[in-house]
From TrEMBL:
Species this protein is from: Nitrosococcus oceani C-27
Keywords for this protein: Cell wall biogenesis/degradation, Lipoprotein, Lyase, Signal
Residues covered by the SPOR domain: 178-257
Stated role: Lytic transglycosylase with a strong preference for naked glycan strands that lack stem peptides.
GO molecular function: lytic endotransglycosylase activity; peptidoglycan binding
GO terms under cellular component: cell outer membrane
Gene transcribed to yield this protein: rlpA
Sections of the chain in a coiled coil: none
Protein name in UniProt: Endolytic peptidoglycan transglycosylase RlpA
Biological process terms in GO annotation: cell wall organization; peptidoglycan metabolic process
Upper taxonomic lineage: Bacteria, Pseudomonadati, Pseudomonadota, Gammaproteobacteria, Chromatiales
């Protein structure tokens, strides 16, 4: 089996887990998996994962630095893939690895993010969601899920030369619409503790030239308190505020209407 990604590293750093006696189901690669039935991941704005995004981490004595944003990332190199040995295990982001999903592992890109991967030998192109860390071979730049490898045509040989280019999802706004008739907000966070929401509100108010509101969202359990910047009455203002939020460490605000 190909070189796998780093699983559970950041959970192990956060707290002790007894993995010595754990068993995971062994799933055989489906050799009949049809690449034309596999759908690309659909890029969307997402907050950074709670796990897997420290400023840096170390594996086998090598230190790796993580990026706060995927903006502008583009690289050519060797891709590999990982499959049944890691199927059902936790990824570095805390999600469960599914070898049949269109995902990937990367050493430095923020988790999660989306990238386009192009097989330079056959020109096949896919979009995957990066939610894991790896590969840790010095000559490889990305580890693909088994499904992604099949669709890209790399499952048989195991590795291949690719180009990886980051995708930055944009707010789905129709720029021909007069948004001044509507109210758009950038949601920065949601908290169960109202004091946490108020602290973030206070911080943003001191650094952003826009109104910052805390609005409760009732649920069947405890309510959530959403921190939103706005209303923002035009796309230019929204883009400027989103850029400022990225500079402050909030790269993936959610556009709400």
């Amino acid at each position: 089996m190909k070189r796998g990604a780093l699983s559970l590293l950041f959970f192990l750093l956060a707290g002790p887990l007894n993995m010595a006696c754990s068993r995971f189901p062994e799933v055989q690669e489906n050799k009949l998996l049809a690449d034309d039935k596999l759908n690309d991941s659909a890029p969307r704005l997402e907050p950074l994962s709670k796990y897997g995004n420290p400023p840096f981490y170390e594996v086998n004595g090598q230190r790796y630095y993580t990026r706060r944003s995927s903006g502008g990332y583009k690289e050519k190199g060797i891709a590999s893939w990982y499959g049944s040995k890691f199927h059902g295990r936790r990824t570095s982001s805390g999600e469960i690895y599914d070898m049949h999903a269109m995902t990937a592992a990367h050493r430095s890109l923020p988790l999660p993010c989306y990238v386009t991967v192009t097989n330079l030998s056959n020109k096949r192109q896919i979009i995957v969601r990066v939610n894991d860390r790896g590969p840790f071979h010095s000559n490889r730049i990305i580890d693909l899920s088994y499904a992604a490898a099949v669709k890209l045509g790399l499952d048989r040989q195991g590795t291949g030369l690719v180009e990886v280019r980051a995708i930055e999802p944009k707010p789905a706004l129709n720029r021909t619409v007069d948004v001044s008739e509507n109210e758009f907000y950038l949601q920065v966070g949601a908290f169960q503790n109202p004091r946490s929401a108020e602290q973030l509100q206070k911080r943003l108010r001191s650094t952003i030239d826009a109104e910052v509101k805390v609005s409760p969202l009732p649920t069947q359990q405890a309510p959530f308190y959403r921190v939103r910047v706005g209303p923002l009455l035009n796309v230019e203002t929204l883009d400027n505020i989103a850029k400022r939020l990225t500079e402050l460490g909030f790269p993936h605000p959610i556009v709400v209407h």
